[in-house]
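ok so for the tutorial part 2 we go from a plain amino acid sequence to predicted structure tokens. step 1 is just haveing the sequence, like this:
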Amino acid sequence: MATSGENGGEAAIDLSWAPDSGADVAGYVVYRREGDAAWERISAAEPVVGPSFHDPHVQAGHTYIYSVSALDQGGHESARSTEAHETVA
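step 2 — the prediction. this is what the tokens look like for a chain of 89 residues:
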């Protein structure tokens, strides 16, 4: 998973990841946490369709940890991806 801070204006983090190769993937679920806090689902109830996500709900000076899981057509969720860390400038 790759992350990047947004330039110019409001703080935001853009995530991207390699798409799941399964034929029955319906979309993705994006999770975020800070430090040792519990994981929080930050994507909408409907799965994210593409292998990217824009998180505008971040604060400067904070470090966020992200992870993504895939959902199949039956609603089964995969294990979460490797964690990605991003600090907002």
